[in-house]
Design a protein that fits this description.
With 306 residues, this protein is of the alpha/beta class. The protein has ten helices and 13 strands. Strand 9, helix 6 and strand 10 form a beta-alpha-beta unit. Bound molecules: glutamic acid (GLU). Glutamic acid binds next to helix 6 and strand 11.
Length: 306
């Protein structure tokens, strides 16, 4: 039974990797592509979420969404197992599930969610201009960002780590980066961290994580830094070419971003996260997404309401 389960999980990873590489723009990974992605039928299944009716909250954002008949949610599109959009424009991953469970509690079914891709460097402006109602995309809660946006959560705790080529034995952790070139993303906390003089690293700063991964595969940079949860997804996609070093050096608590002053919405989203953690949806969603990339499940962090 145990064997059968792990075979099913392996097949699910293969299936996910196949869709996830479909628009990765990487032509050099033929060796990592699974030969048969159709055998994952016993793999963990995604939950479905009951859509709440007659939701009434004193939230300007929610009222606007209700009259539009849809909720606009910002997300990433190039983070396999977290926030990914395939060539058929289908979104998948743990963050997408978090978005769906919260939207359901606010009264919006999956076909009433309009996902918009919003990369790290434009999150605060996009949220504060009201171009998205919610944002679910590996978004670290911190005091600096709280000056511009509101956060519900945290719903997950990640930590910055390093992605390197499989055959690299020189980069063993953040203290081995002197003189090395590290790629990361504009507007992200791991980039801010790695620029500190104590690491002695040179940085390449791009807009999309997938571009950093491509530079690593092309030998143009020595490492990519961001959250371990994101990096594990890329390593799972190309297990013969990439590995995660495995020494997290920051704490990255993920929150759901929204308008800074909409406290009613913040409370409602925290309630939704809490309810789905309690009823088992959270764990089920995790097992069917992030869990497939080699991240071990840990209990969600305590919510911080303010
Ligand atoms: N969690 C980090 C951040 O919010 C890195 C991941 C990302 O860029 O989304 O900056």
């Amino acid at each position: 039974m145990k064997l059968r389960k792990s075979a099913a999980v392996a097949a699910a990873i293969a299936a996910f990797a196949l869709t996830a590489t479909a628009c990765g723009g990487d032509s050099g990974n033929a060796g990592d592509k699974p030969s048969d992605a159709s055998t994952g039928k016993d793999a963990p299944k995604l939950p479905t979420y009951t859509v709440a009716k007659d939701v009434s909250i004193d939230s300007p954002t929610l009222k606007k969404a209700q009259s539009a008949g849809k909720i606009v949610i910002g997300a990433k599109n190039d983070q396999p197992f977290l926030g990914f959009e395939d060539t058929d424009r289908k979104r998948s991953g743990f963050d997408i599930e978090i978005a769906k469970m919260v939207a359901a509690d606010l009264g919006f079914g999956p076909d009433q969610i309009q996902f918009e891709t919003v990369d790290s460097n434009v999150r605060e402006t996009t949220i504060s201009k009201g171009e998205v109602d919610l944002y679910v995309g590996t978004y670290t809660i911190n005091d600096e960002r709280k000056k511009q946006v509101g956060f519900a959560g945290p719903y997950f705790l990640a930590g910055a780590d390093l992605l390197v080529r499989k055959d690299d034995s020189a980069v063993t952790g953040p203290d081995s980066l002197k003189g090395k070139t590290v790629c990361s993303i504009k507007g992200s906390t791991p980039l801010q961290e790695i620029k500190k003089p104590k690491y002695g690293a040179k940085t390449v700063e791009l807009s999309k994580y997938s571009e950093c991964v491509q530079q690593l595969l092309n030998n143009e940079v020595d490492a990519v830094t961001t959250d371990d949860a994101i990096l594990k997804g890329y390593a799972a996609q190309r297990p013969t070419k990439l590995k995660v070093v495995g020494k997290p050096f920051t704490e990255e608590p993920y929150g759901i971003g929204m308008n800074k002053d909409d406290k009613a919405l913040r409370d409602a989203v925290s309630d939704a996260i809490e309810a789905h953690e309690k009823n088992g949806d959270y764990k089920k969603a995790y097992d069917a997404t992030l869990g497939l990339s080699g991240s071990t499940y840990t209990e969600p962090p305590a919510l911080e309401r303010y």
